[in-house]
Amino acid sequence: MTRKIVSLSLSDKAYKRLNQIQKQEDKSRSELIRGLLEAYDNRRSWDKVVTAGRPTKNRFNIKSEQDIIDILND
């Protein structure tokens, strides 16, 4: 896999937090930032699923996980 070098600017607070997390997780800064990008992509995908499902939620008046279970068991 080809890697690219990226330079970024962080506030002192963000830089310190990145270093704290790096030590806690025992990962490189690059690994942490790659993980953040992956989490961001996953969140965006989930947001799209929620948006796409909203009309169904409204049509069936789904308010909870139990409502979904009840619909599936009918």
Task: List the topology elements.
Blueprint: H1 12-25, H2 29-59, H3 65-73
| Percentage of residues in helical conformation | over 70%
User: What is the straight-line distance between the termini?
Assistant: 49 Å
Q: Largest sheet at a glance? A: none
List the helices and strands in order.
Answer: HHH
Average per-residue pLDDT, rounded, comes to 94
The number of distinct structural domains comes to: 1
Secondary structural class:
mainly alpha
Strand % is under 5%
**Global geometry:** elongated
Question: Taking Cα atoms only, what radius of gyration do you get, to the nearest Å?
Answer: 20 Å
Q: Can you count the beta strands? A: 0
Low-confidence stretches: none
Q: Helical region count?
A: 3
Pfam families: RHH_1
InterPro entries: Arc_rbn_hlx_hlx, CopG
Protein name: Ribbon-helix-helix protein CopG domain-containing protein
GO biological process, one term: regulation of DNA-templated transcription
Overview of the molecule:
It is a single chain. 73% of the residues lie in helices and 0% in strands. The protein has one domain (13-73). It contains three helices and no strands. The model has no long low-confidence stretch (mean pLDDT 94). With 74 residues, the chain is mainly α. The chain has helices at residues 12-25, 29-59, 65-73. The chain starts with 11 loop residues before the first helix and ends with a helix. The protein is elongated.
